[in-house]
Specification:
The structure holds two protein chains of two kinds.
Chain A (H helix, E strand, L loop, with lengths): L6 H10 L2 H21 L1 H14 L12 H23 L1 H29 L11 E10 L15 E2 L3 H8 L3 E8 L2 E7 L2 E11 L3 H4 L4 E4 L10 E5 H8 L8 E4 L3 E9 L12 E4 H7 L12 E7 L5 H6 L1 H9 L5 E9 L19 H28 L5 H10 L3 H38 L11 H27 L3 H6 L7 H36 L9 E5 L4 H5 L1 H9 L4 E7 L12 E4 L5 E4 L2 E5 L3 H4 L4 E4 L9 H4 E5 H6 L12 E4 L2 E9 L14 E5 L6 E6 L4 H15 L6 E4 H7 L2 H35 L1 H9 L4 H35 L10 H28 L2 H6 L2
Parallel strand pairs in A: 5-10, 7-9, 17-22, 19-21
Antiparallel strand pairs in A: 1-11, 1-12, 2-11, 3-11, 4-5, 4-8, 6-9, 7-10, 8-9, 13-23, 13-24, 14-23, 15-16, 15-20, 18-21, 19-22, 20-21
Chain B lengths: L7 H12 L6 H12 L5 H14 L2 E5 L12 E5 L1 H19 L8
Antiparallel strand pairs in B: 1-2
The chains are: A alpha+beta, B mainly alpha.
Chain lengths: ~900, ~110
């Protein structure tokens, strides 16, 4: 039997090869194949395939312009011409189609840019996949040894965990720690600023993370004590054009740091940022004792694994590890867990993050909005094209009679729609370039359209155009191609009724989405309003906060300073504290006598305040008394708790807790009071158990309540007073209500972004509705004319034209209610204090959507109703 | 008219066509060249050369009869044209002329 060469290769050859050459080439190839077959069949087949491919040579390939293709080209030109004419003849419809689709595509691109930015966090670190971070949990004694839930962990933890991991586990290659940012007074020559974002860091920072080093030696920069690596921005601020390396910066008036390196500013897409790294050995000089203190929390720990080591095997050894180091703890429980750094920005649920975290949920919400907007725009396209298919029925009929194939017709319409999509894309690109600065403002992130200037995106864009063109065009095209020429040309073909049901369905779909988005906007805004107006349990108005950063000299003469400031006529009251509402607070193991007389320990939050804090903030007492100058022992022996803490210790009536014994952080004495719960943190969280202690040497901030009139003058007076009292400290002030509300920055941004995109979605839906009513009304001009002649009023005609729509609208409303209710409740779950999603929100949103929709329709229906019937009836 | 040129590989193929007078077709040329040059040659290269020379008018072709071999495909036989022959002559003369200009140098 003769061997046969590979069939596919042969067919391929027949497909591309010129027919007059084919026989010879095929013959020669087969002959060579048959010869080689004798020695090695496998090689013969492979060689045959290879040789066929080698024949892909211009000499042998069929000419592109054969006679057949010549017609195709002419047809293509004709299609293009017809499409072009059609677009320009029907300017209104083309405008609606192109602008709707263009705006939709632009929104989509903007959202993609945002999502891409959010997904790009930390991706610039080359080691990213091998970096893990340590999560710590500080639990009460009762919880010790029990499994810890992911939410209980926090990223902020102790110093010795990192070295212990390296020491105990061969899997761990290296660890890196940095502290939470300290506020420090920096001084170089005449420049003196308080720097808020300086951290102490281990010396291997630049081995683990991929920040670019601009000057100095990254390997040794942080080895020595009293060395600092500055970011470009800070180096610029202090040294300008000078070379920063080797310069000395005075910090906190008594220590001197040597600049040993300059690095790039930490990229915006990093889950933590800083403006300078001070060597960890410096911190060790300041506070050597905390470096083996498992209970002292101030460090973020990251580590890398050796090649082939697995995090799973490490995880299994955790219980043993925890037992070894903290098994002897008698008053609290510690636990540890690991998290890949790649999860830090979007996936982490741990508390006390070193920087802002993103929200995966929001990314999903925005991505769905992007899809919705595009869908709404495509639906406009489908609705307008199908409803107007009748206009092109004749054209289809003639083309078919003359001999057009189904495929050619299909191709014609699809390419016409793709051409429209192309116009839309051009518009979209222009819009993106125009509006990306606004997106930057809205998101607060440096998102530039320049990120889109990559080959990849251009390919995506082009394929997107084709896909959208096909998606939006496939149904109208099928409908058009399906017309029967005989019927169409005879003139008995009246309406494209088959599309009507679908059209109604799509309008319902569009409006369900629009109403849902409107409800979403309403819920987001009422929630934000609710947060702003919620009674926090303290008075945040007119509260001026002055930060002096634990300055020892201020702490020493704190009472004098307070009294001097209080002398100002516009100052109502003043207090000092370690933190103000909205700031981070530490937790500490605290033992208090329970209702049955036994000592019980938990780890409530600690708030260090002075005697004036509670009256100054107008926090109400639930029982007992506040700290007072009349009781000099308050600094040493007194503790105040909040209602949540009282409840945790088992006291249903706060009164019962007064006089109970306590033991906390080297202090012991009696509980003297219980304050009513106040929201010392954002309303995302419930009020946690809190203990307030009077600690004169832990003070960092003054809270000054000022009169509302003439604030600028008060400020400048206070600044002068401050300069006289504390000449070495800059006067750094802020207003509490502003800083407290900054905690909702991310929520406000979400609200703004959401409402902008929701608004655009509704706008596009209305645009489509406008086009649709314009068309249906024009179809009924005669009918309206006849009705008017017979005596119909304007009102009845408008009702006639709108009634159908209102029916659709009600169905859409009914569909959107459960969907939006579910989604928005999920969103609200992120807040401990939520506004209810009530009927009124649906009422308002539904009513607004209806008004907008009716306004859109009424433009056309009123025009039709007011038109002179003579005009519409005269022409026959 | 721009005079047609002859590439190096084309020249070899043309020589083979001339040598195998009237019996030259793709595979026979391929085999002969592989034997003479002692290296592997791709059949597509031979085909390209043949088609180019056909266009330039150095060879002409005719189909042979149908046989059972080659899956029933006819062979296409090539013959050198007068123009092809004169081209070969010219090339040969040119080379000889230049070769003779080489001075007698010893390469020892």
């Amino acid at each position: 039997m003769k061997p046969s060469p590979p069939k596919y290769a042969l067919n391929f050859l027949r497909w591309f090869c010129r027919e007059d050459y084919l026989e010879e080439l095929e013959g020669d190839l087969i002959e060579v194949f048959e010869m080689q077959w004798e020695t090695s069949p496998g090689r013969a087949r492979r060689n045959f395939n290879y040789q066929v491919i080698r024949h892909l040579h211009p000499e042998f390939i069929k000419p592109i312009t054969s006679e057949n293709n010549l017609i195709n080209r002419a047809m293509f030109q004709n299609h293009f011409k017809v499409a072009w004419r059609h677009i320009f003849n029907k300017k209104l419809y083309s405008f609606i189609n192109i602008s709707g689709l263009g705006v939709g595509m632009a929104c989509c691109m903007l959202i993609i840019m945002y999502v891409k930015h959010e997904l790009s966090y930390d991706k610039y670190h080359q080691n990213l996949d091998n970096i893990y971070r340590v999560l710590h949990a500080y639990k009460s004694f009762e919880e010790k040894g029990k499994p810890t839930s992911p939410e209980e962990f926090q990223v902020w933890g102790c110093a010795p965990a990192g070295p212990a991991l390296l020491n105990d586990f061969p899997e761990v290659k290296s660890y890196f720690r940095f502290t939470s940012p300290s506020n420090m007074l920096f001084e170089y020559e005449d420049k003196r600023f308080q720097e808020d974002n300086m951290v102490f860091a281990d010396s291997n920072a630049f081995d683990m993370f991929s920040w670019k080093f601009l000057a100095g030696d990254p390997q040794t920069a942080l080895d020595e004590p009293f060395t600092i690596v500055l970011t470009e921005k800070i180096a610029q601020k202090y040294f300008g054009a000078e070379d920063p390396i080797g310069k000395l910066i005075k910090i906190e008036e008594n220590e001197v740091l040597k600049v040993t390196g300059v690095m790039e500013n930490v990229p915006a897409n990093s889950h933590f940022t800083f403006e300078g790294l001070i060597s960890m050995s410096t911190f060790k000089r300041f506070r050597p004792e905390i470096f083996d203190w498992w209970g002292y929390v101030d460090f973020y720990t990251y580590f890398t694994l050796n090649d082939n080591a697995s995090i799973v095997s490490l995880k299994s050894k955790v219980p043993e590890f925890v037992e070894k180091y903290t098994g002897n703890w008698e008053d609290s429980g510690y636990d540890i867990a690991f998290e890949p750094m790649a999860d830090a920005y979007l996936h982490s649920v741990a508390g006390r993050q070193p920087g802002e975290t993103g929200s995966l949920q929001n990314l999903y919400i925005f991505s769905s909005i992007a899809v919705f907007i595009l869908l709404i725009a495509c639906i406009n396209f489908i609705n307008l094209s199908t409803s107007r298919s009748l206009e092109r029925a004749k054209e289809v009929g003639i083309r078919k009679v003359v001999g057009a194939y189904r495929q050619t017709l299909m191709g014609q319409f699809l390419s016409e729609f793709i051409l429209l999509a192309l116009f839309a894309a051009v518009l979209a690109v222009l819009l993106v370039v125009l509006f990306s600065p606004i997106l930057q403002d809205l998101t607060g992130k440096p998102i530039s359209y320049q990120n889109l200037l990559e080959w990849e995106t251009i390919v995506y864009l082009l394929s997107g155009i084709v896909i959208i063109g096909i998606l939006a065009g496939i149904y109208p095209a099928t409908l058009l191609v399906g017309f029967q020429p005989a019927k169409v040309l005879k003139g008995t073909f009246k309406s494209s009724g088959s599309g009507a049901a679908l059209r109604k369905g799509l309008v319902i779909f569009q409006f369900s989405l629009s109403i849902a988005l409107m409800v979403g906007t309403a819920v987001v805004f009422s929630q934000l309003q609710y947060l702003r107006n919620h009674d926090l349990g303290f008075d945040q108005e007119q509260m001026l906060i002055v930060d002096f950063g634990w300055d020892g000299r201020v702490q020493e003469q704190i009472e004098t300073i307070k009294n001097t400031i209080l002398d100002h006529p516009n100052v109502l009251s003043i207090a000092a504290s370690r933190a103000v509402p909205g700031n981070f607070l530490p937790n500490a193991g605290t033992t208090i006598e329970g209702p049955d007389g036994e000592m019980v320990s938990y780890g409530p939050t600690i708030y260090e305040i002075d005697q004036d804090f509670i009256p100054n903030y107008k926090i109400e007492m639930a029982a007992g008394r506040a700290f007072s100058r009349d009781f000099p022992n308050d600094t040493a022996q007194s503790l105040i708790l909040n209602e949540a803490a009282a409840k945790m210790w088992g006291y249903h009536n706060p009164e019962d807790m007064i006089g109970k014994r306590f033991d906390q952080w080297g202090k012991s004495g009696m509980v003297i009071g219980v304050v009513k719960n106040f929201n010392y943190q954002s309303l995302h969280n419930k009020v946690e158990p809190l203990s307030l202690r009077f600690e004169p040497y832990s003070m960092r901030k003054f809270s000054i309540r000022v009169k509302s009139e003439n604030i600028p003058a008060t400020l400048s007076d206070l600044e002068k007073t401050w300069a006289a009292l504390v000449p070495h400290r800059p006067f750094i002030y802020s207003f509490l209500d502003e800083t407290f509300n900054k905690q909702y920055k991310a929520d406000v941004r979400f609200g703004q972004l959401f409402s902008v995109f929701a608004g655009i979605a509704i706008l596009i839906a209305c645009l489509g509705l406008f086009g649709l009513t314009a068309y249906t009304t024009s179809q009924r001009t005669k009918e309206i004319g006849v009705r008017k002649v017979l005596g119909a009023s304007v009102g009845s005609i408008v009702t006639l034209l709108s009634a159908g729509f209102i029916k659709l609208f009600i169905i859409a409303l009914l569909i959107s209610i459960p969907v939006s209710w579910y989604v928005m409740n999920r969103w609200l779950e992120g807040f401990a204090y939520q506004v209810g999603v009530g009927v009124e929100i649906y009422f308002v949103a539904g009513f607004m959507a209806l008004v907008i929709a009716l306004l859109t329709i009424s433009w056309q229906s009123l025009k039709a109703a007011f038109a002179n019937p003579v005009k519409s009836l005269r022409s026959e | 008219m721009k005079s047609a040129t002859l590439g190096e590989f084309e020249e070899l193929v043309l020589l083979t066509v001339a040598a195998q007078h009237d019996q030259a077709y793709g595979v026979s040329i391929l085999e002969s060249l592989e034997e003479q040059l002692d290296r592997k040659i791709s059949i597509s290269a031979v085909h390209v050369a043949l088609k180019r020379m056909d266009e330039k008018g150095f060879v002409k072709s005719r189909f042979g009869g149908i046989t059972k071999d080659r899956g029933g495909r006819r062979k296409k036989f090539y013959v050198i044209t007068a123009m092809g022959k004169s081209m070969l002559d010219e090339q040969y003369a040119l080379r000889t002329r230049i070769y003779q200009q080489i001075p007698k140098i010893s390469f020892s």
